Amino acid sequence: MNGTDGRTAARDAAAAPVRGAVTGGPAAAAGPGGEGGAYGAGGTSGDERLRRWRLVLGGGEADGTGCALTGRDAAMDAALGALYGGGGSGSRKASGERSAGLGGSAPQVARWLGDIRTYFPTSVVQVMQRDAIERLGLSALLLEPEMLEAVEPDVHLVGTLLSLNKAMPETTRETARAVVRKVVEQLEKRLAARTRATLTGALDRSARISRPRHHDIDWNRTIRANLKNYLPEHRTVVPERLIGYGRAARSVKKEVILCIDQSGSMAASVVYASVFGAVLASMRSLATRLVVFDTAVVDLTDQLDDPVDVLFGTQLGGGTDINRALAHCQSKITRPADTVVVLISDLYEGGIRDEMLKRVAAMKAAGVEFVTLLALSDEGAPAYDREHAAALAALGAPAFACTPDLFPEVMAAALEKRPLPVPEG
Question: What is the reported pTM?
Answer without folding.
Answer: 0.67
